[in-house]
TrEMBL record:
PANTHER family: HYDROLASE ALPHA/BETA FOLD FAMILY (PTHR43194), PIMELOYL-[ACYL-CARRIER PROTEIN] METHYL ESTER ESTERASE (PTHR43194:SF5). It holds the Pfam family Abhydrolase_1. This is Oxidoreductase. Signal peptide: none annotated. Residues 31-265 form the AB hydrolase-1 domain. Gene3D superfamilies: alpha/beta hydrolase.
Amino acid sequence: MALDTDWNLTRTLTSTSGDVRWDRLGQSGSPPVVLLHGTPFSSYVWRAVARSLTRHHQVFVWDMPGYGTSEKATGQDVSLAAQGRVFTELLSHWGLEEPLVVAHDFGGAVSLRAHLLHGARYRALALVDPVALAPWGSPSFRLLGEHSEVFERLPPALHAALVREYVGSASSPGLHPAVLDRLVEPWLDGPGQAAFYRQIAQADQRHTDEIQGRYGEIGIPVLVCWGVDDTWIPVAKGRELVALVPGARFEPIAGAGHLVQEDAPAELTGALIAFLQQQR
């Protein structure tokens, strides 16, 4: 996987949940694609896919409030409810009425909430190992959320070790050390350490419970990609989700864990390009 050390977001929108860093790649006028990352990640996980998609699309990437290079602040609302609203604000700011949308992990829930609750319109939606169906949240995830104030006070070295182990477990074959360094970096300073536990503490299943019963209302083309070796959310959840969304297509990706973008970027990019070209 390319490290892409020059991956930087150069633009800022002040949203209802703080400053959001974003950027646009590709030729203006090409069909727009928006990429949403999950937790505890950032737009950096989309770098290879984003570069590949620019051949035929204008690609929009962003770091959610509380993530990556976007604002991290005490008392900040970084819940799924807030992220859904912020995504709707971004679409309006960008002037995108019916973009193609690709969303990973929590970004899947964000895109689904924006579509079903806030009226965001998409031409098509590709979901990659999304958080979408109850129950979700591993025992470790729940432990961190329930005791976030305690973990916030961990010595920096212990916190760094915890975050590296947690993020690394999202990959099946294992992450390149430099990629792992880049993924954990935003969480390691003082504001980052607090933000890491804040986003877990605010992760509430009710935000997917609110929309799970409405997946049958989705009337746009949907592709669900899933890493077969995902230990964070079992591949069976992907098949369950596809059964709930009319006409949805399932694309299992062998050899990939939860971070499909890192584990099998070529296979994922190929599946996404084929799906997106069908919508042109």
